[in-house]
Specification:
Layout (H helix, E strand, L loop, with lengths): L2 H22 L3 H26 L8 H20 L2 E3 L5 E2 L4 H23 L4 H21 L9 E2 L14 H24 L1 H11 L1 H6 L4 H27 L1 E2 L6 H14 L6 H19 L3 H15 L3 H7 L7
Antiparallel strand pairs: 1-2, 3-4
Helix pairs in contact: 1-2, 1-13, 2-6, 2-9, 2-10, 2-11, 3-4, 3-9, 4-9, 6-7, 7-9, 10-11, 10-13, 11-12
């Protein structure tokens, strides 16, 4: 077995072992931290499809995360206040069912990614970064002014939404749900990377002219990847909102978009388990360094600088001994 595959298995085993240990010693806060890792890793896996496979540096991915979060917040808010989301042209009621909320979050995020992708992919390079950043800021300020759902104060949900057969208020059960979704998305990502679409997308990232020469449209390939990426990030946003039982405009902020990019760079751009490793290390540093000093982001910046300079393949690449993910 390749060394990287062993590292991937170790990361997965660690993500399971920590909450089980926390359950055994009655440390629910540690289970919540592990759940946060799983959800942030899910968002980073989504971004990694656009960034790692498609080469699209998006500073607006928080838009999809926020849309997923607000999809959960709005539906759950109307369910707990017994009011309709809309009465015309058809009656739409709130719900506290997680599968329904996830479906709405994924569809809404995918549609937003389609519109943003169609407009943004007319550009490339720094212009693509700027236009995705502009979309992110548009959604951020819209959420701030959306007083019906809390405006800049955000929106609280008092009881976590439900999933058939589970008590999601029990930390270990909610972690198991998030972990299962993360595993399913990782499997989907692995299949995507090895599929003809994934190979064509990889080629479009490296030599778009040659891809166009053989009759493929590189912009269309990147647009499909961007939509898939946005849908997965939106699902992560819905789970994150359920974890905190709170949504706010900060879910749309460009700082959060940068945070997801940091997760991918920490773990390894284009690597299957890079986002998972990055999310685990980020949450660990946030918890550990954050307890030592309020200036922990400075030390995170130093670590990120060292990885960019000396470990271009991220932590997974450093441990696997291979700096390049695409070979």
């Amino acid at each position: 077995m390749r060394r990287e595959a062993l590292i991937n298995l170790a990361v997965l085993a660690g993500l399971v072992a920590v909450p089980l240990w926390a359950l055994a010693v009655d440390e629910p806060f540690t289970i919540t931290l592990a759940t946060r890792v799983a959800i942030l890793a899910l968002a980073a896996v989504g971004l990694n499809i656009a960034l790692g496979l498609g080469g699209l540096v998006s500073l607006g991915h928080a838009v999809f995360f926020g849309i997923g979060g607000y999809a959960m917040g709005i539906l759950a808010h109307h369910a707990q206040t017994y009011t309709a989301v809309a009465e015309w042209p058809m009656l739409i009621e709130g719900t506290k069912s997680m599968p329904v909320i996830w479906l709405v979050a994924v569809v809404a995020s995918a549609l937003a990614a389609l519109v943003i992708g169609v407009l943004s992919l007319r550009t490339s390079g720094v212009y693509f970064i700027m236009i995705t950043l502009a979309f992110g800021q548009m959604f951020f300020y819209f959420a701030i002014s959306w007083s019906a759902y809390g405006g800049e104060d955000g929106l609280s949900i008092y009881v976590r939404n439900g999933f058939p057969g589970l008590n999601t208020l029990v930390p270990i059960q909610f972690f198991g749900l998030c972990f299962a979704i993360l595993c399913a998305v990782l499997w989907l990502n692995a299949r995507l990377m090895r599929s003809p679409f994934g190979l064509a997308l990889n080629a479009a990232r490296q030599v778009p002219v040659r891809v166009q020469t053989v009759g493929l449209n590189p912009v269309r390939l990147k647009l499909v990847a961007f939509v898939i990426s946005g849908a997965i990030t939106g699902l992560a946003g819905a789970l994150f909102a359920d974890l905190n039982r709170f949504v706010s405009p900060t879910m749309f902020s460009w700082q959060f978009s940068g945070e997801i990019i940091i997760l991918v760079i920490l773990g390894g751009v284009g690597r299957l388990f890079g986002p998972v490793m990055g999310a685990a290390v980020f949450v660990l540093l946030e918890h550990w360094l954050g307890g030592l000093t309020e200036f922990w982001l400075i030390w995170l910046g130093v670590i990120l600088l060292l990885i960019v300079l000396f470990a271009r393949g991220g932590l997974v690449g450093l441990l696997a001994g291979r700096s390049v993910a695409h070979d």
